[in-house]
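Narrative progress, year one. The postdoctoral researcher (J.K.) led the effort to move from monomer predictions toward full complexes, under supervision of the PI. The following entry was the first complex the group processed end to end, covering 405 residues in total.
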Amino acid sequence: MSPNNSENKTDQYRRKFLSQSAAVAGLAIAPGLVLNQVAHAKSDSDKASSANRWGILIDTNKCNKGCTDCVTACKTENGWGSVDGKASSETHSSKEQQAQWIRKVTITDKQTGHVQSLPLMCQHCETAPCVDVCPTGASMKREDGIVQVDKHICIGCRYCMMACPYKARSFIHEKLELQKATAPRGIGTVESCNMCAHRVDKDQNPACVEACTKAEHSAMIFGDLKDANSAISIELKKHGGEQIRADLGLNTGVRYQGL
Amino acid sequence: MMSLRQFAKHLVVLVGLTALPMLSTAGDLGPVPPKAKMNASDTTKCVEPIGDMRKNHMEFLKHKRDETMREGVRTKTHSLVECIDCHVTPNDKGEFARIGDDEHFCSSCHNYAAVNVDCFDCHSDLPQGAATKNPHLNKLTAGGTK
């Protein structure tokens, strides 16, 4: 055996040892990762992290035309508009002015007569025009992709309402009281869907998604777009999902199927 | 030279004069905030020492609001909702004072010091659930007297 050959053998041995130990290390890490995903828990003291990007996938074919459960759930959760036929607290505003965090939109294809129904709300853009135009920094995107208004510093200029291609935002014209503790809202500020940030921080689904699942339509899936194993990512990989006004290149967090 | 008796007389007058302003303000006890629902713990009354809270509560609230609103930190210490839940309590008749009333915890001092707060333009001035449980609410919706 030449010395050269024995060196090669040593190298082979080392390589084999390294690859085996790497496999063992891989096994050791994998259960940890799985555990992490199952627990998924964000403790109260944890900050929203850019490791996540929250999104909602809406299947318009499953969305029931007459159903407004998602809208009602949003109103109840966040305390806007009228629920159960009770008058809205915003009595001085016209219907067009009143709060509209989420609304049902019906689209009819004139050629085929095909009618579609879908919920429309803040699309939680990655490059949000409302955040771009805000002069105070009140219109903001959290690390985890949730777009919302910091009403503490909102001056009510309504530039963001002009900038939003989805007409997702509304302005409060009158003095309100007895708001929900989790959804403070008041005169002179702009508001919109915040993907129920207070629920997401507690590892719950947004109210609209929960209501849709409860009504057994299951047209909405909420989840982490950055996690390849989340239900929303798997479904998007399998069947795809469209953005409304994809031509604007906003990379929305809310996606639709069947449009 | 002043005799001892004269000195004593002067002293009495002097003491009397010094005490006068105290007597005249004895009627004004300052703000009387309502008692909180409970102590924060066995050793601490509030989440911070009371003197610290009186002086710096606005700083605590402001720091917390940015953490919660912008970063999603949901701890309860220094949260306005927790302040309201503990400090805004019903009177003997089960009625809640509203913001602006001298009986409301925040207004009891803020009215006295004439410092306006706009927290309650957006936040509820009552504990969660108080609105639905309170039969007197309709009488109180005027939003305070001041």
